[in-house]
Each structure stands twice: as structure tokens, then as C-alpha cells.
Amino acid sequence: MKYLLQVDFTMDGPFGEEMSEAFVDLAKSINEESGMIWKIWTENAATKEAGGIYLFETKTDAEKYLTMHSERLTSFGITDIRGKIFEVNEALSTINKAPIN
User: Fold this and answer.
1) Nearest-angstrom CA–CA distance, 58 and 67
2) Fewer beta carbons within 10 angstroms: which end of the chain, N or C?
3) Where are the chain's structural domains?
4) Closest CA to 42 of 53, 31, 33
5) Model-level pTM?
């Protein structure tokens, strides 16, 4: 079973292309996290929110990453971090073309 981690938080930016340039090294480092399959980066400049949707191999990997990432975000001065972990229903998700394999 795969596990989805949803994280979002309030931040002042950067967003868009500036975000892409500022966080390229962070994005590359996330690929090295234990059990991480993929991440979708999310942002909404109008509401000053950012975050991501992650797919992990195990719940333990998702929990470990959420703890580490929350500590990292806090060190950047970001507060109001919201994180949720969900089990993925692979049978139904596959019907809807989810990239879970």
C-alpha cells in the first residue's frame, strides 16, 4: 500500500518562476528521501500558500518525512504547517489514471 502526504502552509513567497529557481536544490534533495516516489509542488500566490502532495512507499517514510520537513520549514520561519497522511486506494486510483506505480 502507498501513502499520500499532503502538506500546506502560509508563506510570503517566492512563487512562480522565482520559486522554481530558489528551490531547485531543495527539490533535488527531496528525491533522496527514504521511500519517496514523487512530489507535486503546490502554490497559490494570491492566498500566500504553498506546499506539496507526496507519494511514499510506507506510512513510516511519510511520517518521518513530515517530521523532518516540518522542522525544516520551522527553521525557515514558517508556521501554521498542516500535514496529513492518507492510505491510497490503489485499485480506484488506477481507474482514474493516478501515477502510483
Assistant:
1) 15
2) C
3) 3-95
4) 53
5) 0.90
Q: pLDDT tens across 6-44, in order?
A: 999 999 999 999 999 999 999 999 999 999 999 999 999
| In the block, residue with C-alpha cell 522542522 | 71
The length of the chain is 101
- Adjacent-strand bridge partners of 8: 51, 82
Provide the 8-state DSSP code for 33. S
Is residue 4 within 8 A of residue 88, CB to CB? The reply is yes
How is domain 3-95 classified at the CATH fold level? Answer: Alpha-Beta Plaits (3.30.70)
Confidence of residue 101 (pLDDT cuts 50, 70, 90): low
Q: What is the pLDDT of residue 100?
A: 81
